[in-house]
Design a protein that fits this description.
Structural class: alpha+beta
Number of strands: 3
Strand order of the largest sheet: 2-1-3
Number of helices: 2
Helix content: 25-40%
Shape: globular
Length: 92
């Protein structure tokens, strides 16, 4: 085998920048409504809770969801993440 010196390997630490997604164009209105309902219910049950979630992980088929308080959500294949800013925009 002959290896060419023209091809250079990219270091493993270098990554391609990721553009932010615009969630409003991608979300099903029913999923967004379910996420708002989950968020509202949480704060009705826990009015004195100090920590704010970063968003909700919600199942696309059953519309069951969980509030996410960490930094990076870990999602199952059939889940999607709705950020808190998207949820609160419709509650005003």
């Amino acid at each position: 085998m002959v290896y060419s010196s023209k091809t250079e390997a990219r270091p493993a630490t270098e990554s391609t920048p990721v553009e932010p997604m615009h969630f409003s164009a991608l979300l099903d209105p029913a999923i967004l409504q379910a996420a708002r309902h989950i968020y509202r219910t949480y704060f009705e049950v826990h009015p004195d809770e100090v920590q704010r979630p970063i968003g909700i992980a919600i199942d696309r088929y059953s519309y069951r969801g969980k509030l996410i308080f960490g930094q990076k959500p870990i999602l199952l294949p059939k889940e999607c993440f709705i950020p808190l800013s998207q949820i609160e925009s419709g509650l005003l």
